[in-house]
Amino acid sequence: MRRYHSGTDFRRAHSIAELAAMARRRLPHFAWEYLEGGAEEELTLARNRQGFSDIGLLPRTLVSCLKTHTQRSLFGTELPLPIAIGPTGYNGMLYRDADLHLAKAATERGLPFTLSTVSTSSLEQVVAAVPEVNLWFQLYCLRDPAVQHDLLQRAKAVGCKTLLLTSDAVLLGNREWDKRNFVRPRQLSLRNKLDVLRHPRWMQQALWPNGLPILGNVERYLPEGQRTIAGAAHFIGSQMDTGLDWQALARLREKWPHQLILKGVLHPADAEKAIAFGLDGIVVSNHGGRQLDGVPASIDCLPAIAAVAKGKLSILLDSGVRHGTDILKACALGADTVLLGRATLYGVAVGGQQGAGHALDLLAQELRLALSLLGQPDLSQLDRHGVLLTTSSPLTVS
Ligand code: FNR
Description:
There is one protein chain. By secondary structure, this protein is an alpha/beta fold. It contains 16 helices and 14 strands. The chain has helices at about 15-25, 30-35, 45-55, 100-110, 125-130, 145-155, 175-180, 190-195, 200-205, 230-240, 245-255, 270-275, 300-310, 325-330, 340-375, 385, and strands at about 55, 70-75, 75-80, 85, 115, 135-140, 160-165, 180-185, 185-190, 260-265, 280-285, 315, 335-340, 390. The longest helix is centred in the last third of the chain and has 32 residues, at about 340-375. The termini are far apart. Ligand FNR binds near residues 35, 287, 320 and 321. Ligand FNR binds near residues 89 and 166.
């Protein structure tokens, strides 16, 4: 049983798990469950960690590790690490202006930051606060073509060059905690309201004086009088385009002149289609176990996808990344870069920009150390043959 530091000083956290324990103490129950929870029985959520645990590392010895190389070239940009912050919605519920803090922490370290469609800060606010940001935008496909068009225009206008279309959440997964914690959309149950009162530091930092923040990107599309978080949640729910298919993706490809990435690919046949449709990248992702419960871990799907897609488009991976060794394993199995979801959210939830930065620094240190201990200090030379032993057989799909 691990014993973690019992306070909330993020500087004393030695791992992402320790940051998570601190975030759990700081946040009211409903916000913690929103951050941490998965769908239904959370089978996929658990598999995401198990998938990484099941991969063993086979080090080489007597290899000089005076210097480690962790750089990655992605979409024409040199990244110091194979890491980008992935899209997460409602971040301002965890910590005031959390999107801005995440963007600043990523930018300070030369890493991309992805803003969700349902972020609390808007595209324009992020760029005004962090002009140097390497901003990626995550799009949920919306029914109203005028709204969708406007969002794309706004992303272009702020200089965003990378668009991620999320395809695995046109319907929201079955998140039981969400139904328990809210009696109506964004209307907390009495039990949760009382629990909020037991978290005065969070209330003062995240809630006071205006209550829960609104969704910055969609606020302008809401009817007058409904510009609240409940109104925004209702709007998004009613706007999700359940007809999203490959034809819609082809239309988006025509409209978006820059990098287009499909987020939510688990099957190699879909990776092949993404190549055929001229996409620049895919995210091998199960949405952090929050959508269809029972799907495999992303890391278990990666080898079969890399076999058909490596070198034909960029392969990103998320879901369950909590250690430098996870990043190493993902890269060895064919990922160009990982996206972080909860890992940096724990950090931002306890310490804003510095907390998110601490999460990134922990992962970077762990990755460098792991590469050295593996006897493979150059990330670009890492591949599955020389260094990895899988204790469970990687998923093969026919
Ligand atoms: C998400 N995710 C997500 N994805 C997306 O495309 N748009 C979004 O708005 C959100 N929102 C969101 C909120 C929260 C609280 C979480 C935890 C996740 C999914 C996210 O981009 C990513 O796929 C997962 O978080 C990866 O799993 P890990 O790293 O969190 O385990």
